[in-house]
Amino acid sequence: MLLSSIALLMEAVVGFCSPVSKGEQKSGSETTNVQFLTERNQKRYFDYGSTEWNEPIRGVNLGGWLVLEPFITPSLFEVFRENDNSDEGIPVDEYHYTKALGPELAANRLEAHWQSWITEKDLTAIKSMGFNLVRIPIGYWAYETLSDDPYVSGHQEKYLDEAIEWASNNGLKVWVDLHGAAGSQNGFDNSGLRDSYKFQDEENLNVTRKVIHYLLDKYSRDEYVDTVIGVQLINEPLGPVLDMDKLKNDYYLENYNYLRQELGRDQIIVIHDAFQPLHYWDDFLTEDQGYWGVLVDHHHYQIFDSNQLNATFEDKLKLACSWGQDIVNESHWNVAGEFAAALTDCTKWVNGVGYKARYDGSYQKDNQGSFYIGSCENNEDFSSWSQDRKDQARHYLETQLNAFELRGGWILWTYKTENSIEWDAQKLAYNGVLPQPLDDRKFPNYCKK
Ligand SMILES: *[C@@H]1O[C@H](CO)[C@@H](O)[C@H](O)[C@H]1NC(C)=O
Ligand SMILES: *[C@@H]1O[C@H](CO)[C@@H](O)[C@H](O)[C@H]1NC(C)=O
Ligand SMILES: *[C@@H]1O[C@H](CO)[C@@H](O)[C@H](O)[C@H]1NC(C)=O
Fold first, then answer.
1. Cα dist. 26→297, 405, 406 in Å?
2. CB distance 360 to 373 below 8 Å
3. What is the pLDDT of residues 146-190, one digit of tens each?
4. Which of 128, 272, 281, 393 has the fewest Cβ atoms nearer than 10 Å?
5. Which helix (H) or strand (E) holds 77?
6. Is 4 part of a structural domain of the chain?
7. What is the pLDDT of residue 432?
8. Is position 162 annotated as part of the catalytic site?
9. Ligand nearest to the CA of 449
10. Is residue 442 part of a domain?
11. Ligand 2 centre and the CA of 363: distance in Å?
């Protein structure tokens, strides 16, 4: 999940929306495995644009499971609270959570969390909600650790593999998503280690490469490719603080060559856009240049910046439509691998432990100013939401689905949370904010190609 406003500064309110008639959605058809895999080099890869598959990706993320996020499971972090009025002393990420507990306690608590947060029943529920894919974040530390890392290591892989099996049993596809790199690729809490940006230090990069090579090798084998239809090299590398040439050559291209040349495999490689503008990747690893099977992942939020939060609702819809209009002719197939129903940043810790919310003007990070837009009171009590707010949340979500389905589809952030409504697919569906079925629409589709 994006916790930075840097990218948002780059997303101007562009594009326009004009009404088109309802009923142009393809209905979500039942699919079985295997039949949409295509031969190449006598091997197989998933053909996202094929006429047989015939539906966009309609996915959901399994956030806060194998990589902790304080806002998704605050109860794990609240036990450290010392003071009602301050978050001081509360670990801010999984690194500090495991460091605070020590290896044994951390392993005990995390095992309990991994066993209970996602079970086979969840994959069945996800299928019955109409989704066709789950994106599963996992950190490098599941496989390898740096010498002074406090992380619990070596236990997560079996949960990932179980989830892939459950997905397969339910006819769901999977993206395996390396969500945290050694040293952190973005400084977000969801990378495992907040406020660190040392992904490209040589030793760290070696460790991360070793892990992603392992994942590429494992999940491109025949036994997985029917279900795992993409491996994401790294989630949200923070372009503006990274060396972009190094990201492209020493990481994206290096892994492409490792998979295609060294291993000779056909799995789809997913690259995140590194918070660059849409179309930035149009001339990198393209089919024209002889590369293939590279899919670009764009993430979209409008709540990590005060001015975006304060934009009119109509402007927010227009921006969402423009995302869809702009991706239609990107050279790579692309999917919105994260986005949300959220129109506020009121959910506790969604900006990180201790930072509070821009929406009600209480934001506290780096003395960055925020101003009052509205109240965050009772944010997690749906019955207290005005009808207007309920309608807007649904309308915003529908608009994004329409926009992203102009190309390869979407993956909602996230499947479940302990307390949040705006970030929780289960609660959104239960409360009639997430369309059920997923192609049901209450509002006209304003997003035109
Ligand atoms: C990183 O890997 C390269 C290639 O294997 C090796 O030559 C180099 O010494 C490694 N660097 C560190 C700091 O581990
Ligand atoms: C927030 O939006 C309102 C309505 O468009 C506008 O009047 C106000 O100036 C904005 N506030 C700030 C601080 O930009
Ligand atoms: C994509 O389409 C837009 C609008 O028609 C056009 O301005 C732009 O040049 C196109 N870009 C590419 C890379 O084809």
1. 22, 9, 11
2. yes
3. 999 999 999 999 999 999 999 999 999 999 999 999 999 999 999
4. 128
5. helix 74-78
6. no
7. 98
8. no
9. 3
10. no
11. 17
Write down the number of H helices and E strands in the chain. 14, 10
- Report the distance separating Cα 30 and Cα 403, nearest Å: 22
Structural domain boundaries enclosing 210: 22-430
| Catalytic position from the list 11, 69, 94, 236 | 236
Catalytic annotation, pick one of 11, 338, 398, 422: 338
pTM: 0.93
Ligand 1 near 111 CB (within 6 A) = no
Count the alpha carbons within 13 Å of 103 in the hemisphere toward its beta carbon.
6
Residue 93's domain is classified under what CATH number? Answer: 3.20.20.80
Ligand nearest to the CA of 308: 2
Q: Please indicate whether residue 236 is annotated as part of the active site.
A: yes
Q: Is 163 a member of any domain? A: yes
Token reading at 296: 């670009």
CA-nearest residue, atom 12 of ligand 3: 329
DSSP assignment letter at 334:
E
| CA–CA gap between residue 216 and residue 174 (Å, rounded) | 14
What is the identity of the amino acid at 149? D
Any ligand 3 atom below 6 A from CB of 283: no
Average pLDDT in the 420-435 region?
A: 98
pLDDT in tens, 205-259: 999 999 999 999 999 999 999 999 999 999 999 999 999 999 999 999 999 999 9
Number of domains composing the chain? 1
Does residue 346 belong to any structural domain of this protein? yes
